[in-house]
Design brief:
Layout lengths: L2 E4 L4 H12 L5 E4 L5 H10 L2 E4 L11 H20 L5 E6 L7 H20 L3 E6 L1 E3 L10 H10 L12 E6 H10 L7 E4 L5 E4 H17 L8 H12 L12 E3 L4 E7 L5 E7 L4 E6 L5 E7 L1 E8 L5 E7 L5 E3 L4 E7 L5 E7 L11 E2 L5
Parallel strand pairs: 1-2, 1-3, 3-4, 4-5, 5-8, 6-7
Antiparallel strand pairs: 7-9, 10-11, 11-12, 12-19, 13-18, 13-20, 14-17, 14-19, 15-16, 15-18
Helix pairs in contact: 1-6, 2-3, 3-4, 5-7, 7-8
């Protein structure tokens, strides 16, 4: 299949091109904004599918709305008609096509041009009236307010929020691209399509969330960024970091036993850290009433010893780094860990709650009786 993309260097186009490449589509051609009509005709003559993403939404001259949205679409349809084949088209329109403003009017007129092409040629059309699209590679101060905010926050600049309550309807770039690509294998006449899910937020909420992401590097406390809107927004935020900001530091607490470093804290799923222990050093010597922990030995040889604080029952196990064995502490059992090897011991640690100095749930007790 030969795929033709207009606007392939833009925000949506870049993401679409990468995904098509991942899926093994080797024949992808681009219509460039300064391309001659003859070249467009040549590409259209061999195209099997077209993604029409080119458009203008912030021109210096209001007349450019018509030139960049309507005229370009008309030229594309004329060249495809000349091929004599019903070439399917996916078109990235806008929800503003329903509004009476210069941009919306131009997008609606472009839709009408495409609908006439579809009616004349029998080509399937997939028209997407997209709300605000956000994700990696959107241009600040052009594509979306989220791109602008991400740029400001990652640069340490103040965020300009004029109307915090202004509502936002949002779709994520990965969902847009996947919806577009599903059209490649579809038959039928097509029609108006929707990207799902649609997220609803506000300008003020988005700004606050992005600023919270920035603070998480110092607090080490992350939001619930594993699913849904927060997953998409966090991925977008991180994509605006400059290479010199890819790495950041956490405090290293060191004493005669070794080092302790906290990596990540969560509001409801505890925290991650690691510690080291020099040969012969014992750490722990305490028990918990409710807190639990999981230990993963990365390097070295560790002996874990447990004792029931009520019955005195004991248990011990030795774990070597690289074995992938996870040792879990149990409420009501005092425990310690000793480096019984010759090299430095390195252990990853997860606790099911963030350490609270006012209520540490950590009671000192020697395991050996």
């Amino acid at each position: 299949m030969r795929i033709l993309i207009s606007g392939g260097s833009g925000f949506i186009g870049r993401n679409l091109r990468i995904r098509l490449r991942e899926l093994g589509h080797a024949h992808v051609d681009l219509i460039k904004h300064d391309m001659a009509a003859a070249e467009v005709r040549r590409l259209g003559a061999t195209a099997d599918f077209v993604f029409h993403l080119a458009g203008v939404n912030r021109p210096a001259d209001i007349a450019d709305f018509a030139r960049g949205n309507v005229d370009v679409t008309r030229l594309l349809c004329e060249q495809l008609r000349a091929s004599g084949r019903p070439v399917p088209i996916v078109y990235s329109s806008s929800t503003q096509a329903l509004l009476d403003n210069p941009y919306g009017v131009s997008k609606k007129e472009a839709e009408d041009v495409l609908l006439h092409y579809g009616a004349d040629s029998g080509a399937p059309l997939f028209l997407y009236r997209l709300p605000n699209v956000f994700g990696k590679w959107a241009r600040p101060n052009y594509n979306s307010v989220i791109a602008t905010f991400c740029d400001q926050v990652t640069r340490g600049q103040p965020v300009s929020v004029h109307d915090p309550g202004a509502p936002l309807r949002l779709v994520y770039i990965d969902d847009v691209v996947e919806s577009f690509i599903r059209s490649l294998g579809r038959g039928g006449p097509g029609g108006y399509e929707e990207v799902q899910p649609v997220y609803r937020s506000s300008v003020g909420e988005v700004a606050s969330l992005l600023q919270g992401f920035a603070r998480s590097r110092s607090s080490l406390t992350t939001a619930e960024v594993g699913t849904g809107f927060l997953r998409a927004l966090y991925a977008t935020y991180v994509s605006y970091l400059r290479p010199e900001s890819f790495a950041y530091s956490s405090s290293v607490y060191e004493d005669a036993r070794g080092e302790f470093v906290e990596m990540l804290k969560t509001p409801d799923c505890g925290q991650f850290s690691y510690f080291t222990a020099r040969s012969g050093v014992t750490r722990g010597e305490h028990y918990h009433h409710s807190k639990t922990e999981k230990f993963l030995v990365i390097r070295g040889l560790a002996k874990f010893v447990f004792r029931n604080v009520d019955t005195g029952e004991g248990h011990a196990t030795i774990v070597r780094g690289g074995e992938g064995r996870i040792v879990e502490t149990v409420p009501g059992w005092a425990h310690n860990i000793t480096n019984v090897g010759d090299e430095e011991l390195i252990v990853m640690l997860w606790a099911n709650e963030i350490f609270d100095r006012s209520r540490p749930d950590t009671v000192a007790m020697k395991v050996a009786q």
